[in-house]
Amino acid sequence: MITQSRIAYEDLEFLDSDEGRPIRIQAEYLKPLRTFRQARIEDTIVFFGSARLRGDGAMYQYYDAARDLAYQITAWSRAREREQHRFVVCTGGGGGIMEAANRGASEAGGPSIGLNIGLPHEQRPNPWITPGLGLEFHYFFMRKLWFAHLARAMVAFPGGFGTLDELFEILTLAQTRKLSARILVLLYGSEYWQEIINLPALARHGMISSDDLNLFRYVDTPEEAMATLKAELHEEIGRPAPDFARSYSSDCDS
């Protein structure tokens, strides 16, 4: 008996195989690309921070601060009354600081993004992500790409290994000039960050340039963070975000 073979892209066993890995990686680029285009999202402000910081814990003030700041950012963005969405709050989609930021954006009546990834502990999509803007990733590096791709700024609240990983990813891209547009980096909670990471010591030992210390700023209140964002992103308001998914040549568009 002759059995009809399945079309390759409908063959789930093949797509889940080692040979299908490049297709899975491409899908984690193309699906977010399509999602953000359809939602008319031009750029983002990314929130990083621990999933362990809850609204009722010992460091609850950071949860409340992230919620407040995300509310202010979203209200500021919505006041522009444009068809495209600018400076959309984007998080890792989980609990703690991520939940707080998505929650604040939702309470301000605007969209927010959650780039979730399945982990053994603590990482579950929070309920405040805008429906349709919660994306699930398998590959950490593709998730990181989308954090950086649209970001105009990132706000790093206190966090652990994951937060440090994301923070240094962005700082390294900025230091090595691999970013097509500047990403403003705010470290929220100067007391915490100055205890956890002695960045001036890196410059003092010659491991980074003293100019690299200008790649980030410390902020300690939602109001201070919001004022810095408005001042630094002022020039971006009047211009469209670059079309990150297209390349141009002198004789054709592709």
What does this structure look like?
The protein has a single domain, classed as Rossmann fold, CATH 3.40.50.450. The C terminus is likely disordered. It is globular. The chain contains 9 helices and 7 strands; from the N terminus they run ααβαβαββαβαβααβα. α2 runs parallel beside α5, α3 packs parallel to α4 and α3 packs parallel to α9. The chain has a 7-stranded parallel β-sheet, with helices on both faces. With 254 residues, it is of the alpha/beta class. β5, α6 and β6 form a beta-alpha-beta unit.
N-to-C terminal Cα separation, in Å? 46 Å
Q: Structural class of the helices, strands and pairings?
A: alpha/beta
Question: What level of helicity do the residues show?
Answer: 40-55%
Q: Tell me the CATH architecture.
A: 3-Layer(aba) Sandwich
Biggest sheet strand line-up: 4-3-2-1-5-6-7
Task: Please specify the SSE layout and strand pairing.
Elements: H1 12-15, H2 21-38, E1 44-48, H3 60-78, E2 88-91, H4 97-107, E3 112-117, E4 134-137, H5 140-149, E5 151-156, H6 161-175, E6 184-188, H7 190-196, H8 199-204, E7 216-219, H9 222-237
Parallel strand pairs: 1-2, 1-5, 2-3, 3-4, 5-6, 6-7
Helix pairs in contact: 2-5, 3-4, 3-9
Quick gist of this model?
The protein is α/β, with parallel strands linked by helices and 254 residues long. Helices cover 42% and strands 13% of the residues.
Keywords:
Rossmann fold; disordered C terminus; 7 strands; alpha/beta; 254 residues; single chain; globular; 9 helices; 7-stranded parallel sheet
